[in-house]
Amino acid sequence: MRLLQLLICAPMLAMALGLAVSSVGALGLSKPPNLENIHMTLGEKYQFSIRIYGENQLIEVEMVAAGAIENFIEFDPQRFTLATGESKEVLCTLSPENLGTYEGSLEARPVSMAQGNPLVGSVSANLRVTVEEPLIEQPSGGYEQPSSGDSTGGGISAVQPGVVIALLGAAFVSGLYLVRWR
Questions:
Q1: ω before 161 within 30° of 0 (cis)?
Q2: Distance between CA 19 and CA 9 in Å, rounded?
Q3: For 1-14, what is each residue's pLDDT tens digit?
C-alpha cells in the first residue's frame, strides 16, 4: 500500500516542484580569469568586460562595488533590465589614484523583478588590484622602477657622471691642501 502511495505522490510532488522552480529567477555572471591578480601602473585606466545573464523572468539589475575598489571602479551600464534568457555585457573601468594593493568585489544585484520573486540573489566576482609606479626610461635604454618614496630612482645611478667626477676631484684637492697646510 505504501509503495502505491509513493508511486502516486512522487510524480505529483515532482510536478509541483518543477512548477515552483520554473518561476524562480536567476542571475549568472561570466568574467575574465585574471580579476584576482590585476597589475596596473598609477595613472593608467584598466578596462575589462563581464557578462550578466538573466533567466526565467524580467529582472532589473544594478552593478555595485564593495571593498577598497568601490571608489575607483565605474560600470557601463550601471543599471539595466534583463528579459528572460537575455544577457548584457558590462564594461568595467578601474582608475585608481594611489599606489597600493586593493581588494574588493563587483556585484550584479537584482533591483526589481516582474513577479517579485524573493529567491533571486546577486552574483559577484572578487578583485585584487595592485597599483605600481610607472617605469622610468633610463639613458642606457633600459627601464627602472622607482624605489618607494624616491622619485629619482635612488642612489648614485640618478646622478650625472660628470657631477660625481667633479665632487671627487674637489675632495681630492681639498685633501691635498690640508696635507700641505700642516
A1: no
A2: 15
A3: 544 444 444 444 43
Q: Look up the pTM and report it.
A: 0.61
The one-letter code for the residue type at 61 is V
Pairing outcome for strands 136-137 and 123-132: unpaired
C-alpha cell recorded at residue 45: 585606466
79-111 pLDDT, tens digit each: 999 988 899 999 999 999 999 999 999 999 988
Residue 98's closest CA among 43, 54, 147?
43
Domain ranges (residues) in the chain: 25-133
98 HSE (CA, 13 A, CB side):
7
Residues of the chain with pLDDT > 90, as a percent, come to: 43
In terms of CATH architecture, what is 25-133?
Sandwich (2.60)
Q: d(Cα 9, Cα 6) in Å, to the nearest integer?
A: 5
For residues 17 and 26, which has the higher predicted lDDT (pLDDT)? Answer: 26
In this structure, the number of other CB atoms found within 10 A of the CB of residue 82 comes to 21
